[in-house]
Amino acid sequence: MRISTTQFYDTSAANYQRNFAKVLKTMDESSSGVRVNTAADDPVGASRLLQLGTQAAMLEQYETNTKTIKATLGTTEAVMESIGNVLQRARELAVSSGNAGLTDADRQANASELGQIEEQLLSLMNTKDENGKYIFAGSKGDVVPFTRNTDGTYSYNGDQTTLDLPVGDTMSMATNSTGWEVFQQAINTSRSQMTMTAPAVDDGRVVFSNGQVNSSVAYNNQFRSGEPYTVEFVSGTQLKITDSSGNDVTAEASQGGSIDPNSQAGQSVKFRGIDLTLNVNLKAGDDPATALPGHTFTLAAKPDTFVAGRSPSNSNATEITGSSVTDPVAYHASFPSGSAVLKFTSATDFELYAAPLTPNSQPVSSGTLAGNVATASGVSFTLNGTPGANDQFNIAVNTHENQSILDTVSQLRTALNTPVDGDSIGLQKFNAALASGIGNLASGTDQLTSARSSVGGRGQALDTQNETNQSFVLANTQTQSAIRDSDSAEVLVRLTMQQTMLQASQLAFSKIAQLGLFNKV
């Protein structure tokens, strides 16, 4: 086979160009330190680098999320600490107000300071973050979480949804604590009530406190199953307690229901998780054996109450001014738990929905106004005007199982403002209200402490996860470097060899170029 001079020339030229290109590429690799610039350089390595790049981007996002959560948790914990300090001062005022030497003026001075504390708490609980979002509103950051109602109570307008951000491949963390969890779920220690049923006209001889829950387990498992109870004096020193089925359960009371009308210590009764304080106010010449029998009370959990608010989009200013359970069976069977929406389809017809109301919501009951009263699912609502079609009213159900910290302070302030000087019965009722306030302040503080612990726990978990993420970042960086970066010694050896080959091909090319016929003429 013959090889022409042209073919020999082209082959030598191509070989020279190939070696020259290799030298240039190796020199570029030597100067940049990067081995893989395109997928052609190392298909497997390039694919792996793409995966590692995606992981690096996620790790960078996790770090950003971690910083965001840390900042929010820091703000939240600082606000919670301030609220804890304010509640401590409220507790100190409450305890000092029980001093027997204080007058109405002294207690009212404490009430004035409690009013300032109440405003301070409201402001702190409506704190915004650096982005102008309310930190305790759940996912409704643009909505003021706590507002005061016309009756002096407070409503929570946020939701129970936390805003979660991923901080690891399999871990997300809440950036916020909802006001519902932190401030609305404190156990209400005063959720029972004692109502006198006989004599028809209260003679003031017997005052029973509503009771303080000392054991939620006993209260929920034992007390609630037998209510309402009948508590009656069968003698001057003995109580009888009967449950709703008529069973005598007096034996479950402390001292078997025995009391001492002449001793303060002997007028304390414990029953199924509740502490009851009895105040016997005998008049001159009274014989307990004849003066006390015939006094009868009903003991039960406080009935559910309702807080109603009109929707801002309503066509007029009609409001719900009163509400009560008129049919307990229908109420327990169908009234939505938590909150509901009463919607008028005309000036007289209405429907009741579970909140929140959506286009797919179905009414749980409906009806027609009877005068100015709308009765839905066993609850009667009184209106002060005529509603318009599509007017809506938001109904919040208060089961008294829990109590807002704000409501506790408000109730305590009201008790301190009530004059009791010279009124022994009024003073006894004040002491009962004071005990209730102190108990609920302790419960609210416990709930706040639990929420602060949750924030601290999230902070610790975040630090641990961040350390793990940093380990992944380091491993990712090292792996990418091992795949992408050059070995300088290996590159130098390769460059030397390629330069030698280039010189050889250059010499061969120059020799071949001289083999032309014209060079021999």
Features:
45% helix, 5-stranded antiparallel β-sheet, elongated, 3 domains, alpha+beta, 4-stranded antiparallel β-sheet, 521 residues, f41 fragment of flagellin, N-terminal domain
List the helices and strands and how they pair.
Blueprint: H1 5-32, H2 43-96, H3 104-125, E1 146-148, E2 154-156, E3 164-168, E4 171-174, H4 179-184, E5 192-198, E6 206-208, E7 212-213, H5 216-226, E8 229-233, E9 239-242, E10 268-271, E11 274-280, H6 288-291, E12 296-301, E13 305-310, E14 320-325, H7 328-334, E15 339-344, E16 349-354, E17 365-368, E18 373-376, E19 379-383, E20 392-398, H8 405-417, H9 424-484, H10 488-513
Antiparallel strand pairs: 1-2, 3-4, 5-12, 6-11, 7-11, 8-9, 8-12, 10-11, 13-20, 14-19, 15-16, 15-20, 16-17, 18-19
Helix pairs in contact: 1-10, 2-3, 2-9, 3-8, 8-9
Explain what this protein looks like in three dimensions:
The protein is an alpha+beta fold and 521 residues long. The protein has 3 domains: 34-185 and 402-485, Up-down Bundle (f41 fragment of flagellin, N-terminal domain); 192-302, no CATH class; 305-398. Helices cover 45% and strands 19% of the residues. The strands form 6 sheets. A 5-stranded antiparallel sheet has the order 13-20-15-16-17, with no helix packed on it. Strands 5-12-8-9 form a 4-stranded antiparallel sheet. Strands 6, 7, 10 and 11 form a 4-stranded antiparallel sheet that branches. A hairpin with a 2-residue loop joins strand 18 (373-376) and strand 19 (379-383). Helix 2 (43-96) runs antiparallel to helix 9 (424-484). The mean pLDDT is 86.
